[in-house]
Amino acid sequence: MENIHTIWLDDKNVHGIIKVHDSIFEFLFHPIVFDEIIGEFQIINKLWYTTYNGAREYFRSRKNTYYVAGRMKIHSARELPQHISSGHLINA
User: Fold this and answer.
1) Structural domain span for residue 65
2) pLDDT above 70 for 67
3) According to the model, what pLDDT value does residue 2 have?
């Protein structure tokens, strides 16, 4: 998890965005969802964006089945009851 820079989660801690270090773009932003079956956050469809706003727009699409409850807020990985596995991150 050392490559995770920032985590934003919605009010239900189910959907969010993670900012990770990247060797090409410096940072990448991934939309994530909590997978109740495995008990971890997963990157949605291996998507990545070069800006937070790009990743945030993913959740605003009317064709998208994922939606954010309330506002996104910054969280620390240590505060989360759920696990975020760096093994599921692309370009890590």
Assistant:
1) 4-88
2) yes
3) 55
